[in-house]
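Milestone 3.1: sequence recovery, worked example.
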């Protein structure tokens, strides 16, 4: 069996729905822990815009999970009461199912993703997660807007979102690219490459993880349609 990673984004409109989603960052934990088949899981908030800012966005949240296989992942998302509660409150939701190609580093002290064989050509996803040292928060967040602006102008990026478990201290970046070459080209140039050098030279992070995934399938919409369908139609 190949481990499957699911990442779901939820959009909430209105004060009551947003207050509910914020409260669920704590209240959903017991239900998530009891999900049949779930392995590693995280409840995440986001930043304003596309998430790559230090200002919290109380309208967008995400749930990341690992599962033993795609069938279990799909069944849980379709039938588990906790996911049904999120769907009822959300104005929009989108889930991507992925298989891990490569991973290095740790998240909360463990390496949660299990690499398998690449599933074939097509769009790839990249996820980076870091615990930022408090002493360099200002320098880190001073660089992120430049990276966000460049990635937003890149015609190759299919989807991008910044999320995290704790505002300012924990940062997760998730992006989808047409292929490995164009993803690597972005990482090796401009503000992103400069930030990577600073991370290595100045030791910005207490903990970091880098993972790459093959996309298996998706369901739901974001911005009125599936981001993957927009790519396929291009």
């Amino acid at each position: 069996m190949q481990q499957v990673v699911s990442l779901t984004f939820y959009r909430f409109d209105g004060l009551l729905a947003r207050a509910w989603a914020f409260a669920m960052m704590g209240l959903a934990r017991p239900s998530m822990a009891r999900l049949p088949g779930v392995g590693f899981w995280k409840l995440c908030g986001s930043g304003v815009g596309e998430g790559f800012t230090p200002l919290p966005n109380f309208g967008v949240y995400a749930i990341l999970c690992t599962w033993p296989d795609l069938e279990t992942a799909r069944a849980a998302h379709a039938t588990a009461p906790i996911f049904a509660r999120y769907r009822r409150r959300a104005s929009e939701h989108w889930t991507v199912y992925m298989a891990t190609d490569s991973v290095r580093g740790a998240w909360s002290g463990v390496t949660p993703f299990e690499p398998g064989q690449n599933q074939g050509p097509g769009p790839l996803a990249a996820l980076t997660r870091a615990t930022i040292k408090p002493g360099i928060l200002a320098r880190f967040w001073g660089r992120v807007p430049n990276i966000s602006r460049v990635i937003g102008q890149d015609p190759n990026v299919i989807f991008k979102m910044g999320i995290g478990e704790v505002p300012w201290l924990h940062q997760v970046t998730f992006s989808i690219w047409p292929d490995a070459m164009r993803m690597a080209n972005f990482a090796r140039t401009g503000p992103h490459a400069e930030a990577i050098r600073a991370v290595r030279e100045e030791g910005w992070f207490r903990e970091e993880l880098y993972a790459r995934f093959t996309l298996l399938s998706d369901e739901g919409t974001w911005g009125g349609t599936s981001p993957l369908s927009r790519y396929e139609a291009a």
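Residues 127 and 174 are 5 Å apart (CA to CA). Helices lie at 15-27, 29-33, 70-79, 81-89, 137-153, 180-187, 190-202, 227-233.
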